[in-house]
Each structure stands twice: as structure tokens, then as C-alpha cells.
Here is the input.
Amino acid sequence: MLKSLKLRFILVLIFLVISVIFCLPNVFEPKGALKKYLPSDKIHLGLDLKGGMHLLLELDTIKLMENMIDRKLVALKDSMIREGVRFLALDKRNNTLSVSIRPEQKDKLYNIIGKEFPDLKAGGSDTTGDTLHLSFIIPDNEIAGIKDNAVRQALETIRNRIDQFGVTEPVIVQQGENQLLVQLPGVKDPQRALELIGKTAQLEFKLVDEDNITRFQGGSVPEGSEVLTMRTRNRETGIYTTTSMLLKKQALLTGELLTDAKVRIGGEFNNEPYIAIEFDSEGARLFDKITAENVGKRLAIILDNTVYSAPVIKERISGGKASISGGFTMDEAKDLAIVLRAGALPAPVKVVQNITIGPTLGQDSINKAVKATFVGSILVIIFMIVYYRLSGVIANIALLLNLLYLLGAFSALKATMTLPGIAGIALTIGMGVDSNVLIFERIREELRLGKTVRAAVDGGYTKAWVAIFDSHITTLITACVLFIFGTGPIKGFAITLIIGMIINLFTAVFGSKAIFDLILMKYKPRKLSI
Amino acid sequence: MIELLKDTNIDFVGWRKKAFIISGILVCLGIYAFIMITFGKGNISVDFTGGTNLQVRFAETVDVGSLRSALTDGGINDVQIQEISGTKDFFIKTKLSDTEKEKISDKVSSILKGKFEGKKFEILGSNMVGPGVGKELKKYAIIAICLALIGIIIYIAWRFTLISGIAATIATFHDVVAILGVFYILDKELNLLIITALLTVAGYSLQDTVVVFDRIRENMGKMKTKADFGNVINRSINEVLSRTIITGISTLIALGSLMALGGEVLFDFSFALLIGLIVGTYSSIFVASPLVMLWRKQFR
Here is the structure.
């Protein structure tokens, strides 16, 4: 008996020491040699306590597939021209490309498809007179793969952007089929962060359609051209104005071929920041060709369908370097450089949920919650002592152990503490109190039956244990279900409960019982202060 | 030794008819509330309906009426404003959510800047949920509740009997629905945190029921004669009554301080728990145990 008692105390102490060690970083910063050996993670505070931004983004998969089929169409067109396949019509609908050719060129076309477009499947064919209509579809499993890839790429891109923006401990995960969950704790400028993350950052270079300018002024947009808005900032007042601009639809060059983007200051307008970009070899070759062929024309630089500038090409530019100016502020230029470096999102994203919690509110909540929990705990502790005397003191020691274990486990598991999490702690402590009440009431009953102190304590624990076990397990079941299906705050609550229930069960057997046994063994009291 | 109760011998089972009437009213109210909430009536948070919720703090006192008319004039129709008593904080809620063109919090901010010139304010926090997100959440909340209930029935059926499992689940359901009803009548906001509270209450009520059932199970073993099951139940409840009261008091102390000091958000949460504490204790004594008795009579 004594041996097992020793063992129980050792176990309680080991866990206590571990918990205290893990709790330490919350109280003081270890220095010097200690720093190496002690854990250094504080309890992570959730957004509701620390302040910050919680975003749920949805990738526009419809737009994604549109872009995809558009690109395929252009590529197929280029290939057919190159290989000498004369097509009579080329069109797209949903996930299908349809081509009309002369029947004798069928093999040549199939050759191109087989070699360059392995993901296209032959759909159907149909002959009218001298013309063969063929359709090619992107099969469903390909589409699923494309979407999956796109979400992963978006995740990676956003992670890159956030890393460069500089937020500590961001959470960036996929949720559901095409949603991304982004949490930025303690972010100072949520507005700016949102713009940085949400930007598609599709960089395109297109020629300004100056040949048709008169027709456009008359109100019609010619085939192969489009109208986009151009943004200009008045350098004196800082006010933005927008104007419409007619452009050739075809993008000559896109941001995919970028290798670097940096903020520079100077140039045409002395203190104005601009962005210096660099292309890879393929991009440099294309840029060289474009500028050589279009000297004297205006080349528009477009980001997410907004024209930022449209300078006149003065001469051929080789070397793959260019610059984007557009009356940027310093912050704007910095963020733009980040998104250009991190790359474009495969499709636009839509913000479907945005919870922003200012640091004031977070601090308010944490202060109030901590104060309320503290006062509540003190009152309960006093109540236990008043009602159960010395046994109440033992119960309180067990509760304190509970709390330390809980905080230790929280630190060790790197779990996030949220407002509902604090509520979960309150519930756990409440159940801990209940366990003790159950035990003590049982012990009193046993004492009333005239049993000895020793027998009463043993009997009380044994009989109360069943009820304690069952009630904790049912709560554990609920908590596990909540953890699996809950989101955000509910998950925080569930994890606290799960940890709490396990620790409660442990201290119910090892905590207060061990202290009782020790006292009974040492002092062999005739009466119990309960 | 302080004892609040000693050797009580209250005929709890005898009150079952009155209790069933009270419970019937509570459950009807709760189901009515549930139906109304399903149809989008009642005070439901933007978590479920989609929309925007802002918490704004003014530096000076601002009248709710003028705030409401300012926002309505500014083009935010359908706006609910709640003043947080004792502070200059307001919750502003609307069904509108952000579009690509504008963010609701920016819109509110610019309206307030224009209408309350000179009065400083700060948007402490905002919660914007796009339409459609809430549906998913609702689905998951319902799945979670159903699975938790099934898990509990299975566990209690295994530890006790199937009848007990079902009775415990009904009692738990009764409590959750009753709180829903109370919240609906008091026009308190139903948000994710309150759903958490409902589930906590479910856990609490179950614990209470399990403690009573545990005692019934134990006393059944002692009283070999199956003569009067009602007596067994009565005796069991009386035996655990002091535990029920003491635990109730200590929980009440903790909840009281949360309600008094925990701030607006925790107030509703602890209020829900408080109702749960009362209803949960009541249901394990007056609903769960009599139900078991009723069914045992039927089956015999």
C-alpha cells in the first residue's frame, strides 16, 4: 500500500514538474543556458483574445475553368497555325473546345492534340458537307485535379505573400473543397493585409488599340479589343481618377514569366516609388520582340484588369528589365512588389467571412474573462473550505493541480486559447469541484453508517468513482464530436474540454486520494474534518 | 460538519404529473422557437444568416436613435443596434455583407464620420459572413448535435440500460430546447458561442442524470425485491440531493462571477449556462428518472 502510495505521489509530482516547466515561459523569459533546455512557447492566444483577422476565402473555380479553357484555346490556335492545320472555326463552350477542319487534316490535328494536349479527350465528331466538326473535352477527373491544384497553388501563393508581409504565427489552411482559411493574429493594418491577400495579381502587358480610337469614341468596341479602366493619381492632391481605355484583347506577356520585383525610388518623378521587374530568359526574349515590333506604340501594364500605366515604347528593350510606375504610395508599391514576387493566384478569390478583432477588444475580453475566472475560483475555493473544512483544503489542492496540468498541457500541445476555451476551463474546474463533492458526500454517507475513517474514505472514493467516470466519459464524447465538426471557437472549447476531462479523471484518482491516503497513513485520525 | 440537507425523504416521483406538464410547456415553447429560428425569425447572429456585425466604441455618449437614423439614411437598411449597457459601445448588425466594390465596415465608418462630426469612434471588431457560409455551419452544428446525442445514447445504454439511455437523451434534449425557448422569448442573440453553451448544458445535464442513474443502479442491486421501482428512484434522488445542491451552489458561484465581471459576450454565455444549470438539475430529477419508471411499467 505504502509502495503504491509513493508511486502515486511520484507520478503526481512528475506531471506537476512537467506542467510547471511548460507553463514557465508564460511567466518569465528564460535566459542564458536555461534558454536552451526550457520550452519557450507561450500559450497561444486565439484571435478573439489577441486581436487580428480571420478570413475565409473562396477560390472562384468557375472563373478558374474559364481561364483554363481560354488558355487552351489560344494554345491550340497557335499550334494549329504552326503545324499548318487550316481551321474553319474554333470555339469553346463550358469545358469543351470545338474545331472545324477539312477532313483530310484530321490526322494532323489528332497528332497535335496527342502530343501537346494530353489532357484533352476527343468528344464527338460530325460532318456537314466538306467540313468535319470535332470537339475535345477536359474530362471530369482532370477538372477535379485542376481545381485541387489551383487551391494548393493559391494556398502557397498566399502563404508567400503573408510571409513577406510579415505576420507572426499565421494560419493558412484549406477548408472544404475550394475554401482557404487565413488567420492573422495581431495584424496591425487589417485593411492593407486584406488587399494584399485578396489580390489576384494577374499582371498583363497589352497594346493600346490606337487604330480604332475614333470608333471607340463613337461608342463601339471593335472585335479583338476591350475596354479597361486606367487609374491615375493626381500627384499634388493624391486623389485617384479613372478613365476608360481601349486595348487589344490579346495579352502579349504575363506575370508568369517574372523572376523579381523590387521597389525603387526616383526616375521621372523624383521621390515617387516605382516597381522594377525582371523577366526570365523566355520573358526577356518575348519582351525584346514585343518592344522591337511596336516602337512608337503604347504598351499598357495591367494588374487585375486595371491599367496602371501605358507608356510609349521609345525603343527596343532587351535584357528583360522593365518598370511599372503609376503614382504609387510607398506602401502600395511595397505590397505590389510582394504580390508580383509571390505570383498570381490561379483565379480570383472572394472573401466569404471576415472577422476582424481590434487589439482593444481582445485585451478587454481577456482582462474581463481572467478577472471573472479568478474571482469565481476564489469564491468556490472559499465555499469548499467553509463547507468541507480540511477536506475542502485537500479538494482545493486537487483543483489547483488540475489547473496547472491543464495550463501545462495547453502549452505543451501548443493549443490555442480562445474565449470559449476559457469557458471550457471554467466548466472543467466546475466538473472537478463536482467530482470532489460527489466523493465527499459519499464519504459522509459512509461515516454516517458508522464506518471507520479509513473504510469511509476508501468506500467513498470507490463508489463515487463510477458516477465520476461515466459523467466524464459522456462529456468527453460530446467534446470529441464538437472537436471533429466544430469550427473556430467551438473547436477551442472542445479541445479544452477533452484535455480537461482526461486530467480531471487523473487527479480524481491520483490527486486528492493520494493526499487523503498519506494523511490517514501518517496520522491515523479518529475523526475526519469533512 | 455543515449539512444543508439531512435525511430528506421527498416524494419526487409523486410530482411527476405536474413536472410533465411544466416540461411539456417548456418543450413546446422550445420547439416553437426552433421552428421560428429555422425560418429565420428571431435574433440570429450573422454566423448563421450571413451579414455583418460590428462593435463600435464612441468616445462620447451617442443616442441609439440618432445612430440608427444615421445608418438608415446612409443606405444601410435593416440594421439592428444594441447598446452595451454601462459603456459607449454598440453592436451594429445588418444582413448586408461585403461585395467586391465595398466593405460594410468601411461604409459604416464613412457614414459615422459624416453624421457624427467631431465625435471620435473606433471599430473594435467586425464579423462579416458571406451568404451561404451560414448554411454550411448550420449543417455542421446539426450533424454535431445529432452525433453527440447518438454517442451518448450508446454509451449510457451500454453502461445502464437502453431505456435509461433514451430517457437521458430526452432529458438532455429537453434542456437544450428549453434554453432555446428562453433565449427566443428574451430576444437574446443566438450565436456560435450560445451553441457552445447549449452543448455545455447538454454535458452538464447528462452528468446530473448519470449521477442519479448511477445511484438508482446501485440501489436496485441492494433492494432485491422489485416491488416498488418508484421507491428506489425516490430514495436514490434523495440520497444524491445534497450533492446536487452543493454542486449547484458552487457552479452558481462561478457562473455568477462570470455574469457579473465577464463582460457582454460572456454574460449571454453564462446566462445560458445558468438556465441550463436550473433546467438540467430539474430534468434529471423530474424528467429522466420518472421516464425510466414509466417505461419500465409499460414493458413489464
Remarks:
- Chain A touches chain B through 70 residues (CB under 8 Å).
- DSSP finds 15 helices and 19 strands in chain A.
- Residues 21 and 382 of chain A are 28 Å apart (CA to CA).
- The first strand of chain A starts at residue 44 and ends at 45.
